[in-house]
Amino acid sequence: MSSHKKKSVFREWLEAALVAAFLAFCIIRPFVIQAFKIPTGSMRPTLLEGDLILVNKFIYGAKVPFTKMRLPGFREPARGDVIVFIYPEDTKKDFIKRLVGLPNETVEIKSGTIYINDKPLLDPAFNKRYYYNRGDFMNEGEKITVPEDSYFVLGDNSGSSKDSRYWGFVPKDNVLGVAVAIYWPPLRIRAIK
Question: Would you list the DSSP string of the chain?
Answer without folding.
Answer: --HHHHHHHHHHHHHHHHHHHHIIIIIIHHHTEEEEE--SSTTTTTS-TT-EEEEE-SSS-PBPTTSS-BPPPSS---TT-EEEEE-TT-TT-EEEEEEEE-TT-EEEEETTEEEETTEE--SHHHHTS-----SSS--TT--EEPPTTEEEEE-SSGGG--SHHHH--EEGGGEEEEEEEEEESGGG-EE--
